[in-house]
């Protein structure tokens, strides 16, 4: 039992030490190869999910097609109307409630590989970070977005100062990072040998479990080798000014959200990563918006019981989230990537929630918006869930992954695509 505990502690510590960034903004052999094969297709993926969702009638337009009227929550996105599309009627046909939130990017609440990690496996070798997972503070346990192919939830960075340090480490950190990487590599050798020796002494069922364990360790080994290859590549520099303290208390989460969007834009601008996820958390915090303190906590507003005042305040918070998202889009339009495209044109952004109707904990008809990526936008794409041949959210994800260069035809129970809506 003690050796098992030691291995678990080792793996936990190793996972932390591997959360070191990967960058391509300085040309390396990997970067040069990527540049040589660059095309106009989308190259980046950002997935942003709001944990407590949105009031559906204030998120989805009443009209379909291109001449729809922007609903209240999405009004701040007016300047970008031609750069995003809204999708209604899509979900995973899965579990309801907060537990079902875990399925937002993976399709399965029990934990399965998420879309962002599939994309990271395809493009992550070109940057210092294969992917980055971001949030504000410490969200609830059910609030998870990214899952490995082994079904393990990836940790999220919840403090702006930690994300900033990850992106813009000083050169003086190099020796410490090198020490940590080499130390973990030597420990990993011992763990692999130990696991192999145990494998010969256990039942067939346990051998299968050990095979999964060894596969995971080999993935860790590859990540270590990759990061060692980037040790001599300098980190980018930034003059971005952080606040004197991290605004990570629940009541400060809107301020934290603003900063995290700024840092996410910098991560893409410096090509530190090409895959980002952002979990926008929701607690029982009582927000003050435009000088007015709301009547109750955010979580309480999401369970509004169809009371008009609570719905109005719940949607006011949702609108504040969307305002910050709009500022993020604006930053991406003003920066170009190495191939002359705006970052918005070369980045597919999925914005929405794994919660359909928070009042009833119904996870059908999930709020879904897709922006950027050089796709044809400006439409409200509505789908009838009662159709004889209904489409599901996984169909949309298949199309988006194909736009990012993945050769994929099925995902999370989906075997179709929405290529007629995504082009």
Keywords:
37% helix; 9 strands; seven-stranded mixed β-sheet; two-stranded antiparallel ribbon; 2 domains; single chain; Alkaline Phosphatase, subunit A; 11 helices; alpha/beta; globular; 423 residues; disordered N terminus
Description:
With 423 residues, this protein is of the alpha/beta class. It is 37% helix and 9% strand. It is built from 11 helices and 9 strands. It has a 7-stranded mixed sheet with strand order 3-4-1-7-8-2-9, sandwiched between helices. A two-stranded antiparallel sheet has the order 5-6. α5 runs parallel beside α8 and α6 packs antiparallel against α7 (204-229). The longest helix has 26 residues, at 174-199. The relative contact order is 0.21.
N-C termini distance: 54 Å
Determine the fraction of residues in helical runs and give it as a percent range: 25-40%
Number of H- or I-type helical stretches: 11
Low-confidence stretches: 1-39
The CATH C-level name of the largest domain is Alpha Beta
Strand order of the largest sheet: 3-4-1-7-8-2-9
Count the strands? 9
Main beta-sheet annotation = 7 strands, mixed
Structural class by helix and strand composition: alpha/beta
CATH topology of the largest domain, what is it called? Alkaline Phosphatase, subunit A
Overall geometry comes to globular
- Report the mean per-residue pLDDT as an integer: 83
Give the topology string: H per helix, E per strand.
HHEHEHEHHHHEEEHHEEEH
């Amino acid at each position: 039992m003690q050796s098992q505990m030691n291995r678990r502690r080792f793996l936990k510590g190793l996972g932390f030490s591997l959360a070191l960034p990967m960058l391509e903004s300085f040309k390396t052999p990997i970067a040069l190869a990527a540049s040589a094969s660059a095309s106009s297709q989308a190259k980046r993926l950002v997935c942003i999910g709001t944990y407590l969702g949105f009031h559906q009638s204030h998120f989805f337009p009443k009209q379909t097609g291109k001449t729809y009227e922007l609903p209240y929550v999405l009004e701040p996105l007016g300047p970008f109307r031609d750069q995003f599309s809204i999708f209604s009627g899509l979900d995973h046909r899965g579990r309801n409630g907060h537990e079902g939130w875990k399925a937002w990017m993976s399709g399965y609440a029990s934990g399965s590989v998420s879309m962002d990690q599939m994309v990271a496996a395809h493009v992550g070798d070109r940057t210092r970070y294969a992917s980055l997972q971001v949030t504000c503070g410490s969200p609830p346990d059910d609030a998870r977005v990214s899952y490995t192919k082994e079904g393990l939830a990836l940790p999220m960075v919840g403090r702006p100062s930690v994300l900033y340090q990850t992106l813009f480490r000083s050169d003086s950190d190099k020796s410490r990072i090198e020490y940590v990487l080499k130390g973990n590599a030597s420990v990993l050798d011992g763990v692999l040998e130990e696991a192999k020796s145990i494998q010969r002494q256990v039942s067939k069922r346990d051998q299968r479990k050990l095979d999964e364990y060894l596969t995971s360790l080999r993935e860790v080994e590859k990540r270590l080798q990759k990061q060692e290859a980037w040790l001599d590549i300098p980190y980018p520099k930034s003059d971005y000014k952080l606040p004197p303290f991290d605004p990570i208390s629940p009541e400060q989460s809107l301020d934290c959200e603003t900063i995290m969007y700024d840092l996410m834009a910098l991560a893409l601008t410096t090509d530190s990563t090409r895959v980002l996820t952002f979990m926008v958390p929701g607690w029982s915090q009582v927000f003050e918006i435009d000088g007015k303190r709301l009547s109750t906590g955010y979580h309480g507003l999401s369970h509004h019981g169809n009371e008009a005042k609570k719905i109005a305040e719940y949607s006011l918070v949702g609108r504040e989230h969307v305002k910050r998202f709009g500022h993020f889009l604006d930053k991406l339009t003003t920066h170009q990537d190495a191939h002359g495209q705006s970052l918005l044109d070369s980045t597919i952004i999925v914005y929405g929630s794994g919660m359909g109707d928070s009042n009833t904990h119904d996870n059908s008809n999930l709020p879904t918006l897709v922006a950027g990526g050089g796709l044809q936008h400006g439409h409200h794409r509505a789908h009838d869930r009662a159709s004889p041949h209904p489409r599901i959210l996984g169909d949309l994800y298949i199309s988006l992954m194909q736009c990012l260069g993945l050769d994929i035809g099925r995902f999370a129970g989906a075997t179709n695509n929405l290529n007629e809506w995504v082009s």
